[in-house]
Amino acid sequence: MGDFLHSFFDIHQILHVLPTLLGEGLRNTLIIASLSLLLGLTAGLLLSMLLIATRWWLRAPARIYVDIFRGLPAIVTVSIIGIGLPSADIRPFGESPMGYAILAIGLINAAYIAEIFRSGIQSVPVGQMEAGRSLGMSHLTTLMLIVVPQGIRNVLPALANQFIIAVKESSLVYLLGLAVGERELYFIAQQAQAVSYNSSSFVAAGLVYIAFTVPLTHLVNRFDRRMREGKRPTVADEPVGKEPLTPVGAGMEAGA
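Above: the chain sequence. Below: its structure as tokens.
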């Protein structure tokens, strides 16, 4: 029991690595997750437009992209982008692995976000499109100004969950060998474990992940629940001085 506690819950090792985790590690984890999500939102919205296109030659490339990046394990995608591109002398981000990490996680997010946007857009009633067209708006204008904003509102909780997933997937970029100052949570814990041969640094990293993701998960679930339930009417919402409506036929029954 003593060896187990020393290996996983060594308080000295946890306190030693925790400042680096909270400073450098958490900062870079959030940078990678936020920028990759921004890339995923931009590319995902474009892909979702193609997925709902009426012409098959527009849908086909988007469907192939989504199927490939959803079918590949995330660790394979990170390796192809972060290790494969530089080894092929394709270096859009120079020698820094941070750019490749953001690109890899962003391309993965784009595939999932495209399906999220597609389902949200297709959940908007068809009458919204017909109403816009009846006002003289073009199909694209109606889609961008009326249908897409409503569809995005429907999937906001799912997008927030995707950010949580991006935070956790950022741990895979340790494969790229981030430099000091660019390291994320897992990479810092791994380096500390390699020096001390003690797994308490992994426990410390896990605690930081949990402290960030669990409250955010509950917040997203609460937001999702409130959106589904809507605003419940209260007494204050009732019009003042207005009598309740009498059901149709009630007066006839009373007279009878």
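The chain has one domain: 2-230.
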